[in-house]
Amino acid sequence: MRMLFPHAGVASSVRSTWEAARELHDVRVAGGGRLHLFRLPIAQERSVLQLLQDEDMQSKIEGALSGGIESLTGVLHTAADGVQSAPADGPTSLGIVCGSLSQDDVSRLAACYLAAFRQDAVVFPYFDVPQVLPA
Questions:
Q1: Residue 1's pLDDT band (boundaries 50, 70, 90)?
Q2: Is 111 helix (H, G, I), strand (E, B) or coil?
Q3: Which of 37, 49, 50, 70 has its CA 20 to 30 A from that of 16?
Q4: Residues 57-80: what's their mean pLDDT?
Q5: Adjacency order of strands within the sheet including 90-96
Q6: CA 68, CA 128: separation in Å to the nearest integer?
Q7: Spatial CB neighbours of 124, under 8 Å, sequence gap ≥ 6
Q8: pLDDT tens digit string along 83-116?
Q9: Distance between CA atoms of 48 and 114, rounded to whole angstroms?
């Protein structure tokens, strides 16, 4: 992607991967009322997209990617922040979340993906969002 987009190679790569993963996760967790890593509240998605424009973040991403699977699982281990998760296959509910994802929610997501990578499983962790019923 760097050849096509010299000033946004990493951001373009992450964005295209994000879109493909979003579609796959949406299909597997059956849509409405659920959040997952690739379908976040709009404010958090905007924050991620802004972060991808940061040159320091792009360098960190490139470093993690060039380090291979061990480097990437290391990033997940750090993000899991001590949270443990049993390996699962397929859609996996991580409970209910109201509003934006908290740091604890992100740690649980990372732990879920880390357990799946270690067990060579395919997991689709998601959070349910409570629906507000009209009065």
A1: very low
A2: helix
A3: 70
A4: 89
A5: 34-35, 123-128, 90-96
A6: 32
A7: 24, 25, 28, 29, 36, 90, 91, 92
A8: 999 888 999 999 998 888 899 999 999 999 999 9
A9: 20
Q: How far apart are the first and last CA of the chain?
A: 50
CB crowding 67-90: b at 16 or more within 10 Å, else e: eeeeeebebbeebbeeeebeebee
pLDDT recorded at residue 119: 92
| Dihedral sign (CA 32, 131, 128, 82) | positive
Distances (CA, A) of 20 to 16, 24, 84, 102: 6, 6, 27, 24
Could you give the C-alpha distances from 24 to 9, 82, 91, in angstroms and in order? 23, 28, 11
Given the structure tokens 């990578």, which residue do they identify?
117
Q: What is the pLDDT of residue 65?
A: 83
Structure tokens at 12: 């373009």
